[in-house]
Amino acid sequence: MPMPHHLSSKDFQCPNLQLLRSTRAASRIRMEATAAPTAPRNSTLEISIKKPEPVFVSSRPRQSSNLRDPETTMRDRVEVIDSMSDWAVKSLLPLLKPVEKCWQPQDFLPDSSSPTFYDEVLELQKRVSSLPDDHLVCLIGDMITEEALPTYQTMFNTFKGVRDESGCSDTPWAVWIRAWTAEENRHGELLNKYLYLSGRVNMKMVERTTQYLIGSGMEPQIDNDPYNGFIYTSFQERATFISHGNTARHAKEYGDLKLATVCGIIASDEKRHEIAYTRIVGRLFEIDPNGVMLAFQEMMKKKITMPAHLMTDGENTNLFRDYAVIAQDCKVYTSKDYTDIMEHLIQTWKVESLTGLSSEAQQAQDYVCGLVQRFRKLEQRAQKKAKPLHSAASASQFSWILNSGKPTI
Predict the structure, then answer these.
(1) Would 323 be classed as within a structural domain?
(2) 161 Cβ contact partners less than 8 Å away, ≥ 6 residues apart
(3) Active centre residues (catalytic)
(4) Which of 218, 278, 333, 399 has the highest Cβ tally under 10 A?
């Protein structure tokens, strides 16, 4: 991420700055998207929601964004977000689960206070031993991505009109950000402990990768725009739902039913969060279809980058690219999935049937709706070039995997 404008390189000396720069440089040639707070003051989320002063949203059509300066466009978009506070209380916050009704990592792990703890750990290790190294790499990559949660909360707090201004604000958007983070926090914690107990993972290298990733941040190219941000999160939550769901299916195929349950329950959370973000964008389309259509085009042109695209273990600056290749090979997350998500969002938001758009928004509509067919053709062409690329990445090259001699697929 760019250095804050008020700091110079002398003010902030990173001991791994050169490594970080090389990682980011390598990430610019990565395969785009082919691979994925404190708790609320009471656990039931029954808190007093501060409502902002009423905001008047004009019913007259908004001007095409190319006729206005970016500052005016942003101000209008923040105005729309402000007008949605009551809607967010009624339609967004109910998608959160009270803490008492949420699963916790310990529900799926051996109990260290039990006299059978060691037997349970041995049973876990026996189950995981059947999982090929390639699939283990995918599971570790998913876990590291989940563990970089501080970065994602930071990203949310860059959205103008949405950010948690005080750290404990009681606006519905701030309540959502903190509660969403609290729910997501369980994912990385559960996968981390499961992999630790498996005995097949070099946890120090995994932990080092996580620290590098959080320190590096991410570049989703949202530009503080809440429209861009919610389009990005809609896409990303569906991507993680697909990734965890596929990992669950593979774990079941290889005989680890407990791991399949773990990945499946995480995927269920991601699906619920996907519904929340697509619901937000759907509401935005109702209020400001021109603006959202232009934002959708903007994010599709930029392409959705995965949260862990700056991943490194301190040794391999192409680590995310290699991880993405393994994920493609194992069919955990593929270029086809990327196109499927795009198609799903177009259908969910009924983009093709939008009418009454400005000329510029109509052009954006044509562009976005034509992407699916274009990407399908690119997929077919890429299949012929896939094998040479895939052979460049092997699970045995990952520092995360102990030399266990387990087969790869």
Answers:
(1) yes
(2) 77, 78, 81, 82, 173, 226
(3) 103, 146, 184, 187, 237, 240, 269-270, 273
(4) 333
